[in-house]
Specification:
This protein is an alpha+beta fold. It is built from eleven helices and 14 strands. The chain is globular and about 60 Å long. It binds flavin-adenine dinucleotide.
Length: about 290
C-alpha cells in the first residue's frame, strides 16, 4: 500500500515548523509516523504536505525542573521506557511506555505523537489522566499550557489547534507515600489496549487515601478520568472491600463502544476488573 503523493518538508527549528504549518495548505506534522503513515497508506489521511519534526532541535529528552518531569514531545517510547529520571521519579510512565506495541513501534513512535493523536486505544492517555500531565503547545500566538482534563476531546481529537505544535509534556512527581500502576488487556496482534487502566494513589500514615487519579483508555471514544471511582476512594482507608466497591464504578462515565474486540458488557467488565487490579497494585506500591 502506498500513500497518496505529498510534499516533504524538514525544518530544523520550532519557529520554521510553525511557519510552514501556518503557510501550507493541508499540512500534517510527522513525528514517529507510526500512526500517521499507516493512516496515509490506508488513505484515511491524504495530506498534501508532511512537516517532519525529526530534525527540529529541542523537542527531545527528559529532564527534571523544580519537581516536575519535563519530556520533549519527540522523545520516543523507548527513551521514555528507559529514562533513568522517569524510572526513579514516576516509574509508571516508563512502565506504560514499555507495553506500547512492539520494539519497532517503541523505537520510532513518540510520546508527543501518541498524546497529540489521541487514539482511543493508546496506553499513555490513561497514565496522563491518572497522574495529571500538562501539555505545552506552541503556535503563532506563542505558548500555552493545557491540563490533561481539557486535552482529550473526542475520537482522535485533542485540544491541540491545527496551527499548533505540542512541544513538551509536564509530568508532576507525586509526594512520598504514593504508588501508581498501569494495566491493560492488550489486543493480541497490535498490543493496543482493548481496555487499559492507570491508578495512582497517595496514602497517609494511617493508610487513608489523600490523593487519587484513575484514567481509563480503550473502552470508549477517548480516554477519560474515572471520577466516580476516585470519589469512592478519596479520604477512605483503601482496604480490599473499598477498592472492590470503587472499581465496580469504573465504566461509569465511559462511552463504552462495541466493536470487533468486544461488546459493551464485555468491555465494561474489563474496565471493572482492570481498575481493581491497577488499584490494588498502586496501593501496594504506596505502602512500600
Ligand atoms: C503495529 C502498531 C502497534 C501499536 N501498538 C500500540 C500500543 O499498543 N499502544 C499505543 O499506545 N500505541 C500503539 N501504537 C501507536 C504508536 O504508539 C504511535 O507511535 C503513536 O500513536 C503515534 O506516535 P508517532 O510519533 O508515531 O506519531 P505520528 O504517527 O507521526 O503522528 C500521529 C499524529 O500526531 C500528530 N503529531 C505528532 N507529533 C506531534 C506534535 N509534536 N505536535 C502536534 N502534533 C503532532 C501528527 O500530525 C499526526 O496527526 C501502535 C502502532 C503500530 C503501527
Amino acid at each position: 500500500m502506498y500513500p497518496a503523493a505529498f510534499d516533504y518538508h524538514a525544518p530544523t527549528t520550532v519557529k520554521d515548523a510553525l511557519k510552514l504549518l501556518g503557510k501550507l495548505d493541508d499540512a500534517k506534522l510527522l513525528a514517529g509516523g507510526h500512526s500517521l503513515i499507516p493512516m496515509m497508506k490506508l488513505r484515511l489521511a491524504q495530506p498534501k504536505h508532511l512537516i517532519d519534526l525529526g530534525k527540529v532541535k529541542g523537542l527531545g529528552g527528559v529532564k527534571e525542573e523544580k519537581g516536575v518531569i519535563v519530556v520533549g514531545a519527540m522523545t520516543t517510547h523507548w527513551e521514555v521506557e528507559s529514562s533513568k529520571v522517569l524510572k526513579a521519579k514516576v516509574p509508571v510512565v516508563s512502565e506504560t511506555a514499555a507495553v506500547i506495541g512492539d520494539p519497532a513501534v517503541r523505537n520510532k513512535g513518540t510520546i508527543g505523537g501518541s498524546l497529540a493523536h489521541g487514539d482511543p486505544a493508546a496506553d499513555m492517555p490513561a497514565t496522563a489522566i491518572a497522574l495529571g500531565f500538562e501539555f505545552v503547545c506552541e503556535g503563532p500566538k506563542g505558548k500555552r499550557t493545557v491540563k490533561v482534563d481539557d486535552w482529550f476531546k473526542g475520537l482522535m481529537e485533542t485540544a491541540l489547534k491545527d496551527t499548533e505544535l505540542l512541544t513538551t509534556i509536564r509530568i508532576p512527581v507525586w509526594a512520598a507515600g504514593s504508588g501508581a500502576c498501569y494495566m491493560k488487556f492488550p489486543h493480541p496482534a497490535s498490543r493496543f489496549a482493548i481496555v487499559g487502566v492507570c491508578a495512582a494513589v497517595t496514602l497517609d500514615k494511617g493508610g487513608v487515601c489523600k490523593k487519587v487519579g484513575v484514567g481509563v483508555t480503550g473502552a470508549g471514544t477517548r480516554a477519560v478520568r474515572a471520577k466516580t471511582v476516585e470519589a469512592a476512594l478519596l479520604n477512605k482507608p483503601l482496604d480490599a472491600k473499598t477498592i472492590e466497591a470503587a472499581a465496580q464504578k469504573a465504566a461509569d462515565g465511559v462511552d463504552v463502544q462495541a466493536d470487533l474486540q468486544g461488546s459493551v458488557e464485555y468491555k465494561s467488565h474489563l474496565c471493572r476488573v482492570f481498575a481493581r487490579r491497577a488499584l490494588e497494585a498502586a496501593v501496594k506500591r504506596a505502602q512500600g
